[in-house]
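Data availability (excerpt). The following record was deposited with the supplementary files.
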Amino acid sequence: MKKIIITLAAAICCVAGASAAPLTDSLKPKSAIDTLKTKAAIDTLATADKYRKVVLYSNNTWEYIELDRPAISDDDFADNWDIESIHICKDIPVSSLPAEVDLLLADSTHGWCAPITGRVSSGFKFRKTRNHNGTDIPLTVGDTIRAAFDGKVRVVRTVGNAGGYGNLMVIRHPNGLETYYAHLSGFIVNENELVKAGEPIALGGNTGRSTGPHLHFEVRYMGKPFDSERIFDFTTGEIRQTEFTLKRHYFNIYSHYGMTDAESAATQERVYHTVRSGDTLGAIARKYNTTVARICKLNGISQNKILRLGQKLAVR
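Predicted structure:
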């Protein structure tokens, strides 16, 4: 790492974007020993690059410090490898996961590819009486489905063995994520097979709990799903960023792409009501000392919405 030594006043100017004043001989350390005697870190300044900091020292010098950047490790496949279970890490609660983790999604040797391109018909949300943990993109039966990232196939399940997923494939990726491809009509690759981003892996279909041909696509970390639209713009087929910071509140079913971090974090503090027989929006609003309008806004529904038994509504 190259160290840049400069006066403290000039360092602050550099961080702010101004030109640094030239060094004078009187300000330069006379020797490495003198530097060690007088050099003590007194402050750290952020830069536009979150992995590069400026450290200010007591002897009126500064230097850039490079922090560890996220990396893609091809040795990560073995962790929690389980071909018998669809979901891993069931015994690990979301609350025990890090507040945030930096993930490198792609680099010069590991690519990316939207599994299919098209409009989103249903996103990551609470739908009817259960969580909808993925993103639905309509297709024609037989359309090619592609691997989102380099990885290894962990699960291949057929209709009757994967619940509502129908024909399902789960791929483990070296960036720490797993991707799910559901309602398929056929498979092109098999369990334990290595795949590259963009490689054809399956054919789109209408199997399982499906009301029409579409791909149900999920992204999970430590077995916990979050909104896959945080990763891909499915309309354009583009990745949103190659360095992604996954935050713990993203795992909440009410946290979705497009929210500010404050709005997303607030979903963790919300109070929910499970609809029972005889419930109305008005009665629920009175129970929780709120308004029907507020409940409708929180849940994205109209005041004429027909409530279903077992449905969960955010009320505060």
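Summary of structural features: Confidence is low (pLDDT under 50) at residues 1-30.
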